């Protein structure tokens, strides 16, 4: 960011913001200023109040249906009332939400231009006026394609959103915001959570360009390295309180982390193990998966009993398709053997019966039922597929609510799910706490194999350590075999015993976690070992 003149006024000021949900105070007199062209990072653990503060700024309906808020918002020094997203957009405020706000049945271009469609005159409108003007489809397609190109996306704007990988959906969300012509403030809520490192770097470059054009940026992210790379100022929230606002030059990773959680963050230590002579537990031969945007094109892979195998690679290269194929979510061909027994493909119930547990990368679309309670979300897969949480009375049975409640309470404590209780609806949890419920659902099935796709997506630094330690604990105590897919290479290298890099739908290389950065980078770029050595 260029030097801000000393007499410059904030483009955005939020003053003494207070908000409660059903008696639970989530924001306590929080104030925030954003200067024109400034990248202002907002940090805090899940439940700290970050998303709520941004939902207030964007006028989300859930804020006003739960009693509204106290405090004031100013844009360029003038008091404004933002009662809806339409109000926010009219004032030049945009928001890229953590959970996607796309219409699956629409194309990419239609989602980008939604409610801002350009019109053109026709014969009828010449007679009867503007209400009968038609859509200017050529402009819609070309503008949307231009927005995608700005983000470096090689994606046809006429592609339907439904079926796109979550990483692509994230870029569509961002393209929709940069398409707006009156932007003053743009909020990014965990924009890189579903992106591979190279895509995240491309997005960060795009954020810098927007700031250089004078747009004030509010960036919510749990990736502290990104904050240190791009932010001008950093505001830390904890338990709804404003803890500190500091310039980046005065910040350190360790300092930010400790301000966020209020305690020292211990280092995660990976157990080293030699898996060269272990028993093969899962054997995959010539596996093809037809997952849109994540096609798997012939995987041959052996996974050892009790190891944590990482699946890494760039977005759209196929890594996410492997777990979805094993669980029968997308059409799959090939041969898979689990503990010596052939797995029936394209049948999720057969996968669960083979003791595979799955944490999907798409917690909202696949992982959770948003409008029911935490305890029901945790229990349903086991109840339906294993008959657990039922009490039998002869020919009849009913749900064992006491057992379901005690199980939910166990995982709420074990995974530190921040909620008002097991009866709280999942929709009212923060994104990271929703992810923890997804993990609890899989663990209740008591699997032999745990498939986790992006397990720490949208989870804060303290909770991330907890989740990774939980995975390691399950491996150590129960001999659980884990297949972990992640866009964060550093995360894979931290916990995995081996890491398979997926490129163009195939395994390009399998590397130890302590292999060099160069080896991982070249493997993800599709550069062969021979070329690497040369």
Any descriptors?
534 residues, alpha/beta, Rossmann fold, 6-stranded mixed beta sheet, 35% helix, globular
Molecular structure report:
The protein is of the alpha/beta class. The protein folds into 3 domains: 173 residues, 3-Layer(aba) Sandwich (Rossmann fold); 77 residues, no CATH class; 254 residues, P-loop containing nucleotide triphosphate hydrolases (Rossmann fold, 3-Layer(aba) Sandwich), CATH 3.40.50.300. It is 35% helix and 25% strand. The strands form 6 sheets. Strands 6-9-10-3-11-12 form a 6-stranded mixed beta sheet, sandwiched between helices. Strands 18-21-22-15-23-24 form a 6-stranded mixed beta sheet, with helices on both faces. A hairpin with a 2-residue loop joins strand 4 and strand 5. Helix 14 crosses helix 15. The longest helix has 18 residues. It starts with 11 loop residues before the first strand and ends with a helix.
């Amino acid at each position: 960011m260029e030097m801000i003149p000393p007499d410059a006024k904030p483009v955005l000021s939020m003053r003494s913001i207070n908000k409660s949900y059903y008696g639970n105070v989530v924001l306590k007199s929080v104030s925030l200023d954003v200067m024109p062209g400034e990248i202002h990072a907002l940090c805090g653990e899940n439940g700290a109040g970050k998303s709520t503060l941004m939902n207030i700024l964007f006028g989300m309906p859930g804020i006003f249906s739960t009693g509204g808020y106290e405090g004031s918002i100013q844009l360029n020094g003038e008091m404004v009332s933002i009662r809806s997203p339409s109000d926010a957009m009219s004032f030049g405020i945009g928001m890229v939400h953590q959970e996607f706000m796309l219409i699956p049945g629409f194309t990419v271009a239609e989602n980008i231009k939604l409610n801002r469609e350009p019109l053109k005159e026709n014969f009828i409108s010449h007679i009867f006026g503007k209400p009968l003007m038609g859509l200017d489809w050529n402009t819609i397609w070309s503008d949307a394609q231009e927005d995608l190109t700005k983000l470096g996306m090689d994606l046809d704007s006429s592609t339907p959103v439904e079926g796109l990988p979550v990483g692509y959906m994230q870029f569509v969300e961002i393209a929709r915001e940069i398409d707006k012509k009156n932007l003053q403030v743009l909020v990014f809520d965990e924009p890189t959570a579903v992106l591979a490192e190279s895509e995240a770097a491309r997005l960060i470059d795009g954020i810098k360009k927007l700031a250089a054009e004078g747009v004030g940026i509010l960036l919510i992210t749990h990736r502290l390295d990104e904050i240190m790379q791009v932010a001008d100022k950093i505001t830390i929230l904890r338990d709804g309180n404003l803890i500190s606002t500091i310039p980046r030059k005065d910040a350190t990773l360790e300092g930010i982390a400790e301000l966020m959680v209020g305690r020292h963050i211990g280092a995660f230590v990976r157990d080293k193990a030699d898996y060269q002579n272990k028993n093969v537990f899962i054997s995959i031969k010539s596996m093809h998966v037809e997952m849109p945007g994540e096609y798997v094109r012939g995987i041959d892979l052996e996974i050892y009993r009790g190891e944590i195998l990482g699946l890494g690679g760039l977005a759209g290269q196929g890594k996410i398709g492997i777990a979805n194929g094993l669980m029968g979510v997308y059409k799959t061909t090939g041969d898979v053997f689990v503990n010596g027994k052939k797995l029936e493909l394209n049948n999720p119930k057969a996968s669960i019966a083979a003791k595979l547990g799955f944490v999907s990368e798409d917690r909202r679309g696949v992982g959770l039922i948003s409008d029911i309670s935490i305890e029901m979300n945790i229990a349903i897969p086991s109840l339906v597929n294993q008959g657990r949480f039922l009490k039998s009375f002869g020919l009849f049975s009913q749900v064992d609510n006491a057992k379901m409640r005690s199980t939910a309470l166990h995982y709420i404590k074990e995974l530190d799910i921040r909620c008002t209780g097991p009866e709280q609806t999942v929709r009212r949890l923060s994104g990271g706490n929703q992810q923890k419920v997804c993990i609890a659902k899989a663990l209740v099935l008591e699997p032999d194999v745990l498939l986790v796709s992006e397990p720490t997506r949208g989870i804060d630094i303290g909770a991330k350590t907890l989740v990774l330690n939980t995975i390691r604990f399950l491996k150590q105590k129960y001999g659980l075999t884990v297949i972990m897919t992640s866009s964060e290479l550093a995360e894979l290298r931290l916990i995995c015993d081996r890491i398979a890099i997926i490129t163009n739908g195939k395994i390009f290389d399998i590397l130890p976690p302590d292999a060099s950065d160069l080896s991982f980078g070249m493997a993800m770029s599709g550069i062969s070992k021979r070329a690497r050595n040369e």
